[in-house]
Design goal:
Elements (H helix, E strand, L loop, with lengths): L8 H14 L9 E3 L7 E2 L5 E10 L11 H17 L4 E11 L5 H18 L2 E9 L5 E10 L15 E5 L4 H18 L11 H8 L5 H9 L6 E4 L4 H12 L2 E5 L7 H9 L4 H7 L6 E5 L4 H4 L5 E8 L5 E4 L5 E3 L10
Parallel strand pairs: 4-5, 9-12
Antiparallel strand pairs: 1-2, 3-6, 4-6, 7-10, 7-11, 8-10, 9-11, 12-13
Bound molecules: adenosine-5'-diphosphate and magnesium ion.
């Protein structure tokens, strides 16, 4: 096999590198008036409200390059930001990407990372309109900013949930967390026994949810088509039990969530048992699922009833009720930000 060619970043220089990394990006949104190349990008808000969200990702804290392919990392860095824009019921239009890189990153490695960014831009129809590039003494640092547009009346905040509203989630929960457990296990085995083949069979779904998550863009279209406006919404990044607390706190309400109704995939359920973890704890505290958590008025229930994507998992109550998990055996546990513990 030919050795893979590697080019040090210093060979291109900062401007050469930016030009090289961004040459394949072409704009698709009419709201992008000026992208990369000037002192600032120029965007047209087209008479709408602008929605902005930023994330900062640090190697060793938010990602581990030992088991994260750079292309997946580029894709995920963008998607998790777009998820925040969708969670406002807004359409993402542009992103900026800033990176701090150490000398161990070659031009080819950065090409992989930008290939993931490019794929996310294509799949979600957003334009890369700028960023910043600098060096780092240690690991890779990534900051992505996403910009979106919405009509003022369409925006959905975290503070609109009312008593009697139904609490809903998309998809299923806990999968990304269990994917991470598998990757961490294989990493430990690899460090101790590099000759052992990884045992990743039958875990494509879980590992995929961890390494290459998708944002729920089709759900916004569904809301629009059904003339359904959630009363509150956010995306699930930290885990259901801490994220529902944000909605309840900001809305000044409580909730009852029903353990029996919290959706989990077969794969996640069985993997939790294999790891000696309580499946419901994984679903509640796992995080990084990037599903949407939202509340709807009870009269809108029929609009989502036939859709497999949605699960009604609880009901909004008075604030005095607190935020409660009702277990299968009808016990009531107060939900905590760190999650709920079976053994309390
Ligand atoms: P400045 O000196 O004004 O910060 P730069 O030389 O850093 O400008 O950037 C030149 C252009 O390239 C700008 O449009 C900037 O937004 C864009 N850019 C810089 N780094 C990146 C990157 N990593 N990804 C995408 N665009 C970038
Ligand atoms: Mg700069």
């Amino acid at each position: 096999m030919e050795p893979k060619q590697t080019t040090p970043v210093s060979q291109l220089g900062e401007f050469g590198l930016i030009e090289h990394l961004t040459k394949n990006f072409h704009h698709v949104n009419s709201s992008t008036l000026k992208g990369i190349g000037d002192d600032a990008a120029v965007l047209d808000s087209e008479g709408k409200k602008t929605v902005v969200s930023t994330d900062l990702l640090v190697e060793g804290i938010h990602f581990d390059l030992m088991y994260t392919p750079l292309k997946h990392l580029g894709y995920k860095s963008v998607v998790v930001n777009l998820s925040d824009i969708y969670a406002m019921n807004a359409q993402p239009k542009q992103i900026t990407v800033s990176i701090a890189i150490s000398s161990r990153f070659t031009v080819e490695a950065l090409d992989e990372f930008y290939a993931g960014i490019e794929l996310a831009c294509k799949n979600y129809k957003v334009d890369l309109v700028g960023g910043d590039t600098t060096s780092s003494l240690s690991g890779l640092i990534i900051s992505v900013t996403a910009i979106g547009l919405a009509d003022a009346e369409d925006l959905v905040y975290r503070n609109g949930a009312k008593e009697g509203d139904l609490v809903c989630v998309t998809g299923d929960l806990g999968a990304a967390y269990l994917g991470l457990q598998i990757l961490e296990r294989e990493k430990r085995i690899y460090i101790e026994h590099p000759e052992v083949q990884p045992e990743l069979e039958n875990s494509d779904y879980l590992i995929g949810k961890q390494l290459k998550p998708e944002a729920r863009k089709e759900v916004l279209k569904f809301f629009k088509d059904m003339n359904l406006k959630p009363t509150s919404m956010m995306d699930l990044s930290d885990g259901l039990s801490s994220d529902i607390l944000h909605i309840c706190k900001q809305s000044g309400v409580g909730c009852d969530l029903f353990e029996a109704q919290i959706p989990m995939s077969e794969e996640a359920y069985h993997m939790a048992l294999k790891f000696n973890l309580d499946p419901i704890t994984c679903a509640l505290n796992g995080g990084e699922d990037y599903e949407l958590l939202f509340t709807i008025q009870p009269e809108d229930e029929t609009k989502i009833a036939d859709e497999d994507t949605f699960c009604i998992i609880g009901i909004i109550t008075k604030k005095e009720n607190g935020c409660v998990l009702v277990t299968r055996s009808n016990n009531r546990h107060i939900l905590k930000a760190q999650g709920w513990n079976h053994f309390e």
